[in-house]
């Protein structure tokens, strides 16, 4: 079977997985309620802002950290929001595992000069 065919099969299998179906179901539930949608969006945007600052080795203010913690406490007590974030995390872990497996399999294909970046 060609690599592209296997990739399409992998995509289909992922879309048919219980984890992905649960993710879509919980996402739909959050999206159908404006306040839940807003809460999750604010939390994820703040989380992304802090992660980006960390990657750029920028200092994260105490205010931003406290805001993220406040948003997390709101999300964690909301069943729909918490369920969505847990489902999103599960799917993200699966995708990360797949990327790691593929990356390890093709590490010898790194362009010249990038060999030291291989895991």
Can you give a write-up of this model?
By secondary structure, the protein is mainly α. 78% of the residues lie in helices and 0% in strands. The model has no long low-confidence stretch (mean pLDDT 92).
Features:
119 residues, mainly alpha, 5 helices, 78% helix, 0% strand
Write the layout of secondary structure elements.
Elements: H1 3-16, H2 18-31, H3 34-55, H4 62-77, H5 79-105
Helix pairs in contact: 2-5, 3-4
In brief:
The chain is mainly alpha-helical and 119 residues long. It is built from 5 helices and no strands.
How far the N terminus sits from the C terminus, by CA atoms, comes to 28 Å
Described by the principal axes of the CA atoms, the overall outline is flat
H-E string: HHHHH
Largest sheet: none
């Amino acid at each position: 079977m060609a690599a592209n065919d296997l990739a399409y099969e992998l995509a289909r299998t992922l879309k048919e997985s219980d984890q992905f179906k649960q993710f879509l179901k919980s996402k739909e539930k959050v999206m159908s309620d404006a306040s839940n949608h807003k809460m999750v969006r604010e939390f994820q945007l703040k989380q992304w802002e802090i992660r980006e600052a960390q990657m750029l080795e920028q200092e994260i203010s105490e205010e931003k950290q406290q805001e993220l913690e406040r948003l997390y406490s709101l999300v964690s007590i909301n069943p729909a929001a918490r369920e969505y974030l847990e489902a999103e995390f599960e799917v993200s872990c699966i995708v990360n595992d797949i990327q790691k497996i593929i990356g390890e399999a093709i590490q010898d294909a790194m362009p010249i000069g990038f060999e030291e970046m291989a895991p």
